[in-house]
UniProtKB/TrEMBL annotation:
Source species of the chain: Miscanthus lutarioriparius
Subcellular location: Nucleus
Gene Ontology molecular-function annotations: DNA-binding transcription factor activity; transcription cis-regulatory region binding
Coiled-coil blocks: none
InterPro entries per UniProt: WRKY_dom, WRKY_dom_sf, WRKY_plant
Organism lineage: Eukaryota, Viridiplantae, Streptophyta, Embryophyta, Tracheophyta
Full protein name: WRKY domain-containing protein
Top-rank lineage group of the source organism: Eukaryota
Keywords on record: DNA-binding, Nucleus, Transcription, Transcription regulation
Primary localisation category: nucleus
Domain WRKY: 74-137
An example Gene Ontology CC term for this record: nucleus
SUPFAM superfamilies with a match to the protein in the record: WRKY DNA-binding domain (SSF118290)
Amino acid sequence: MDGGYGGEKSALASELAQVLAMVRELEACMDQDPLPAGARELCAELASSVDRSIRIARKETPCVRRQLRAASVQDAAALDDGLSWRKYGQKDILGAKYPRAYFRCTHRHSQGCLTTKHVQRADGDPLLHDVVYHGAHTCVQAAHPSAQQLRQELQLQPGHGHGAHEDQDQGASTPALETECLWAGLLEPMTPYSFASAAAAGAGADFAGCFPLLSPTALDWQLRSSQPAGSVGVGIGMEFETQFEELFTSATEPFQWDLYADN
DNA sequence: TACATTTGACCACA
DNA sequence: TGTGGTCAAATGTA
């Protein structure tokens, strides 16, 4: 599981070494007049290499955002994804009505799991929560049976966008989920930068492989990345947003999942 | 007693 | 310098 990350690191180092070599080569060309014919090609290669480096770096810091809705304000505090989190801070955010809560994996010290998540209530809707996950679980709980079950279920409905959210079963053993939170699942893979090209958008498929953790988060991204390359745009985002609004206004079935993307 | 939460302080970054 | 993210001591709870 972690081997992939090590491989990415060496790939990134390799790419950056190439970038450095090309920059030096370009530097040498600067003194020549006229510029050698190969200089332009070198620039193109340089841009391409930088692009690859960015994509690799993005894989190194998986960051996924999703929005969850609780059935009541009381339930909101219990929003849970089946994994163990420990709150380590809360902060008032500029321009936000509600403070942002910071959580990290309970097994941070015992198992060195560095995953964190930030939870913030939406200004307009106190029941709606923005949850941003940083990093992937490396602890034992990442192999939680319910998470695996969910993964299977979602994989059975590829490209469907909707899938019965069976966390109810999990709720039987997870007190937090007994609160019957209405998981209006809409998922929004977050990346530090917007996709600059179709090629970069296509990298999303590779990105999915960077979520070895068996949490819904990983599955969400896999589903989302099943969208055709190049479809990760504003237009598609609005389309999913519309679907999301419809889902909320006609939310008769709890635990129903849908896709959402607004990159 | 062990673990979780709260909260003020500190730090890094833009 | 302001803001967001994290730390760590104090406090709460089972």
